[in-house]
Amino acid sequence: MTKRDLPLKVIVWGTGSVGTEVLQTILDIRDDLEVVGVRVYSDEKVGVDAGDLAKRSTQGVLATTNSDDIIALDADCVIYTPRKASLDDVCAILESGKNVVTTAFLFHPRRLDPADLARLTAACEKGGVSVHGSGLNPGNLSAVLPLALSGMTRSIEKVTLQERADWSVYESTEITFNNMCFGQPVESISPTANEFLAFNSSLFSEMVWFIADSLNADIDTVTADVEAIAAMEDHQIFDHLLKAGTTAGQHWRWVGRRGDEELVEIEALWTVGGEYPGHWPKPQDGWTLTIEGDPSMQVHFISLASFTREVPLEDHVHAASVATAMQITNAIQDVCAAAPGPVTAADLPLIRSYGGFGNTPRAELASR
């Protein structure tokens, strides 16, 4: 990519919590990016200006639910953040000559079904473009951070990423109760209980493979299992009542093994209602990454709206969406400059903040 390529023309595909953060960021500070299209999924957003969707000034770009119209636009990159991912959509975008950055899937395409990988690769080659999946977790914390820390090790015995979170503060009860199955019978919870859980589980399995492949673990298998815990009492979670006796806790483990040896593990300790089982591991809230090796090391990560200012609780909750959105938005220039094909955190340069402290945007630096 050369200086004359800026600003890059981009399409925002999906305007949920993450997509809206992307849109606001581009309109506010990304002078190297120009929004030329917006793909939405609800009829009430059709015909709404991109600026209105982002609570910003009018941009003259109207949202549509028509994928064909969006794909027909002239653009350099599509920022793909729908709730439900579609390989068909992404391949069509790539074949049209547009790069893709996504938070929805494709974090480690090498471990896709061989037919899907061949199709994805062919689409990239046909369009002469790249595709990159990332975010928070799955994403930076299960890809960039483990690789960065590994640079300080002589050898590694095991990598473990633990996530502990209570979902009670998340307003999207549709995801919490319908997709994640909280509030449903304990015996119904499994890695294949519904389409959402199966897909979600596959993403974390993919990240175990990513860490293992990137750090030469030579694992044989990745397994997924979950323990569901029943609520001791009723809990009112926004508009939804979680009843005693139904699922209020899910302890997930995705483990990569070589033979009988556990080498890579991603563990999720998720609750609703604040009831935390006494027999579960007790990491701090947030994410804890542990590398056992020579030397061993551990880091704890938490994302908040601020550590110094008083802000509403909902701002703290929303900070994870901001972090997820920025990981791919900040990667756009590097993805567009990459050779055609799927690219991961192991392939790209270290992604850093475009805006940073706000003194000298990179677009200005590029023009010097």
From TrEMBL:
Gene Ontology molecular function: 4-hydroxy-tetrahydrodipicolinate reductase
Dihydrodipicolinate reductase N-terminal domain residues: 9-105
Gene Ontology BP annotations: lysine biosynthetic process via diaminopimelate
Protein name: Uncharacterized protein
Pfam families: DAP_DH_C, DapB_N
Highest taxon, organism lineage: Bacteria
Record-linked InterPro entries: DAP_DH_C, DapB_N, NAD(P)-bd_dom_sf
Keyword Phosphoprotein: no
Domain (2,4-diaminopentanoate dehydrogenase C-terminal): residue spans on this chain: 146-353
Keywords noted in UniProt: NADP, Oxidoreductase
